[in-house]
Amino acid sequence: MDLTKFERNLLAVENPSDDHFYVAAELWECRPDEVNGILERFEPRLVRLSLYFPLMSPELTLRAMLRGVPFDLGLQHQRWDFAAAVILRLADVNCELTAELMESNLTAMVEGLSGNFSDPFEGLAAWVAAADSVDPTYIDRVIGALPEGAVSAWSSAIRRPMKYGHARRREIAPLVFRALDLPGTAAQEARELLRKFPSLAKLDPLNGTRAPKESTAPHEGVVSTLSPAQSIAAATPGTNPEAGARTNRPL
Question: What is the b/e burial string over 170-193, where b = at least 16 CB atoms within 10 angstroms of the residue's CB?
């Protein structure tokens, strides 16, 4: 493609869409220096940032953020994989400003985790890992801000048939176990998910090391040494986790 023509077309649009910057990202793969030059000349006109910008030029993105140009990571639309790549790229340049960007998108992540889209958890584990590397408190604060019923609603994806459901479980399981240790309704709903799907306990990264919880069952005064997930699984002897996942009807 003629980059001069591309630049002329880009400058002719008052507020270019993500489609324009997708084309720029494709061109950047082969001709990064020239495309970055175009972006730098376009920079003074920026009124919003595209998810493609940090992948091409994290420095330009951070300069624009410092000027107050808004940056929507698309978390409300559950674009987890893309958002993870973006913050990792930005954090390599300025971790503090990247943390501020995540904070400005916290409400959007709450919305994304509260939604029940067709593929709500694809890439979620990658986003959680990336967010933890920038701010280890962020994900816990998001979980704490979830509305009542949001964690319970994850069951509709977890109970999907084996072909699909197991992938969802690997994505969402880390958040279920983190919710167990937080105050409020999220912990109660997480325990209920583990009761419904005891096989989730196998995915607990702290299985065997999680701080034991006191329990008076089955004998009064006896302190259980099992983790919450193990206790729930032990309380349902003879349960076939996969059969239960298949026979539960979706919400």
Answer: ebbbbbbbbbbeeeebbbebbbeb
